[in-house]
Design a protein that fits this description.
This protein has 159 residues and is an alpha+beta fold. It has helices at residues 39-51, 57-60, 73-86, 109-120, 138-141, and strands at 2-14, 18-20, 23-25, 29-31, 89-99, 127-132, 145-156. The protein has five helices and seven strands, in the order ββββαααβαβαβ.
Length: 159
Amino acid sequence: MRVGLGQDTHRLVAGRPLVLGGVRIAYEKGLEGHSDADVVLHAVADALLGAAALGDIGEHFPDTDPKWKDADSGRLLDEVLAMVAAARWSPVNLDVTIHAEAPKLGPYKAEIRSNLARRLGLEQGAVNVKAKTGERVGPIGRGEAIAVDAVVLLQPARA
């Protein structure tokens, strides 16, 4: 078994849609980034890559590559999952914490969880999504950014 930890942070800016875990969130700001900046899928991808000892998303999907400009982060995650499978690993469970002062994510957590479970080929009971505020402290608490921590467990893939 292997454990991987992923972390990502993106700045909130006007004029971009907010996408978290592949789910479009109604909010006046979105996340700044080279791709669609889905901070949840980026952290999950990094956790998977870390657990499989395959580097990080910056190595595989550099922000200098025009191929990934405004890309759906689901495509990045699909490629990461293919790399993990090729290395003969498969996900067992996933735990995600989204740090955001706003918007309130309670109404979206079930949909994010369902989407993550589907993408990773897991039962919903093997995926957890939590939302925490920044308690008005730091860039998260001031509503300037959203950060995500993701922890994944991998097991050897069945032949």
